């Protein structure tokens, strides 16, 4: 049986308390291994190691040397691709076909893409002074310090490295608290760090839960300088409260209840294909996923019929099944949550167009966290199923009559992460995208990611932007140096 230890100061260490928790595979609920749960002592050791590393050889490296190290990390992840793939698929149950195209390549790319972050030009202004000699203002960046990275289970390696990459590129050190559901790839990354010569203390991992556990101990640790988080909005609020002590900076990518807007002038097959992906890929466990679909009335029946045809074709199966494109949810606990929304949808008056239950996967897999991909129609706009993030393979499809109505419906939410607009009319696409209250508006696409672009949410979907140079605002401290001439 596997044992997942903390990675602190370049070494794998157990918890002094001897506390362990189980890590189970959602495919069949089999036991993968036991995970050490960090107490305050391990978190403190990790944070202090990270603090000390800032002053060691890491802190003295040039930007070029750090970039070279990040390239090496990316290359090493790619060399150990299959180990990362196995670990991610075992923890999450997701199809290998998906993880090998998205999770692991992006996990590596996140180090390469952000390697040069700090070399982005800083601002400079010459100013006049009364004596006529003038002064020069030069922006100067320094690392922020120890960054706490609290990451979720849906795209474990991808979302963790999306934070670790730029944090290291900017010269910080990190303490990662991966989700308790998915400890494997963060643990494996420790080996890669050592193989690439990353100095001890630069990258640390502590395992455990949120409240009264590693997550809370880490985010309230006074030597943590900033916290980056991806997960549920309510967890984000708890972390902000912890960060308010000592006025630490936070970057938050939180929940979504993202709309898809399908206009009659769309390319129907593109819209169906894109909406299928946005609602059902990764079993609907993507914060950017579409859970509300608004379709212009004249094509509503046709669109719905095509979606049902495509859902019926989804092939549920084990990660290694080459035909399977749909895995289980991450855990039985999360399955219970999603299933409770399936039940609620019926109570709220939905028509279940397809799915709505737990599939019979056969004796070997029935213990797993399987759930049917589901489409509903007929719910009122104030139904909880239409308003709350479910984070499962489901969507509600509703007709609209005018562009203004579609925009109003789409924006009628506390969230504001992403949207997908389907139309072949470019003027409409731009007009609608500009009015969407979101951080990410996709037109005739979804989850198409250029890592140089800004990433983050509006309203209760997040705080701040990461990605490209936008991450510099968070991962680096900018100081203005004013030189009197
Ligand atoms: N990418 C996203 O936007 C994600 C959204 N979710 C949403 O959140 C719901 C709940 O899933 P969870 O895994 O429970 O998400 P969560 O937001 O509770 O967990 C995310 C991370 O935060 C940590 N955490 C939890 N409470 C904490 C606290 N008080 N202080 C510090 N760290 C804390 C967790 O251990 C985990 O590492 C899902 O059903 C889904 O709706 C979940 C995962 C990812
Ligand atoms: O492409 C990214 O950087 C992130 C994608 C997905 C999420 O953020 C998420 O599901 O949380």
TrEMBL record:
InterPro entries the record matches: Ald_DH_CS_CYS (IPR016160), Ald_DH_CS_GLU (IPR029510), Aldehyde_DH_dom (IPR015590), OHmuconic_semiald_DH (IPR017628)
Active site: 253
UniProt KW keywords: NAD, Oxidoreductase
UniProt KW Disulfide bond keyword: no
EC code(s) of this entry: 1.2.1.85
Enzyme class: oxidoreductase
Limits of the Aldehyde dehydrogenase domain: 12-481
Family matches, as Pfam families: Aldedh (PF00171)
Molecular function as annotated in GO: oxidoreductase activity
Classification via PANTHER family: 2-AMINOMUCONIC SEMIALDEHYDE DEHYDROGENASE (PTHR43720:SF2)
Family indicated by similarity: Belongs to the aldehyde dehydrogenase family.
Protein name per UniProt: 2-hydroxymuconic semialdehyde dehydrogenase
Organism: Marinobacter salexigens
């Amino acid at each position: 049986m596997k044992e997942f230890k903390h990675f602190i100061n370049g070494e794998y260490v157990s918890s002094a308390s001897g506390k362990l928790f189980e890590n189970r595979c959602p495919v069949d609920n089999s036991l993968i291994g036991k995970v050490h749960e960090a107490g305050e002592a391990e978190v403190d050791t990790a944070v202090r190691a990270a603090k000390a590393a800032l002053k060691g050889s890491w802190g003295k490296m040039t930007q070029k040397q750090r970039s070279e190290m990040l390239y090496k990390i990316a290359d090493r992840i790619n060399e150990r691709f299959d180990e990362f793939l196995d670990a991610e698929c075992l923890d999450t149950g997701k199809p290998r076909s998906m993880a090998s195209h998205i999770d692991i390549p992006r996990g590596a790319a996140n180090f390469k893409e952000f390697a040069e972050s700090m070399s982005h030009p800083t601002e400079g202004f010459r100013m006049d002074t009364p004596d006529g000699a003038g002064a020069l203002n030069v922006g100067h960046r320094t690392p922020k310090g120890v960054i706490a990275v609290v990451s979720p289970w849906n795209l474990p390696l991808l979302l963790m490295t999306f934070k670790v990459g730029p944090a290291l590129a900017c010269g910080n050190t990190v303490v990662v608290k991966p989700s308790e559901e998915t400890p494997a790839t963060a643990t494996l990354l420790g080996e890669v760090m050592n193989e690439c010569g990353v100095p001890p203390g630069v990258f640390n991992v502590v395992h455990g839960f949120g409240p009264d556990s590693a997550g809370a101990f880490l985010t309230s640790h006074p030597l943590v300088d900033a916290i980056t988080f991806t997960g549920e909005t309510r967890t984000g609020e708890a972390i902000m409260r912890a960060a308010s002590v000592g006025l630490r900076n936070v970057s938050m990518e939180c929940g979504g209840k993202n709309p898809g807007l399908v206009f009659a002038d769309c390319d129907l097959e593109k819209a169906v294909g894109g909406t299928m992906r946005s609602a059902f890929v990764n079993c609907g466990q993507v914060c950017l996923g579409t859970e509300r679909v608004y379709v212009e009335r004249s094509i509503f029946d046709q669109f719905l019929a095509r979606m049902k045809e495509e859902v019926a074709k989804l092939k549920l199966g084990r990660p290694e099944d080459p035909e399977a494109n749909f895995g289980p949810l991450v855990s039985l606990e999360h399955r219970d949550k999603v299933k409770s929304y399936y039940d609620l949808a019926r109570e709220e008056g939905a028509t279940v167009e397809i799915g709505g239950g737990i599939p019979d996967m056969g004796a070997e897999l029935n213990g797993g966290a399987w759930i049917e991909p589901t489409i509903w129609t007929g719910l009122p706009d104030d139904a909880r199923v239409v308003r709350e993030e479910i984070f499962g393979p489901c969507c509600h499809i509703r007709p609209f009559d005018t562009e203004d109505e579609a925009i109003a419906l789409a924006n009628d939410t506390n969230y504001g992460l992403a949207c997908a607009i389907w139309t072949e009319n470019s003027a409409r696409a731009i007009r609608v995208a500009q009015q969407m209250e979101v951080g990410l508006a996709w037109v005739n696409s979804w989850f198409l990611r250029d890592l140089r672009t800004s990433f983050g949410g509006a309203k209760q979907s997040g705080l701040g932007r990461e990605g490209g140079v936008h991450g510099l605002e968070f991962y680096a401290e900018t100081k203005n140096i004013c030189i009197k001439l």
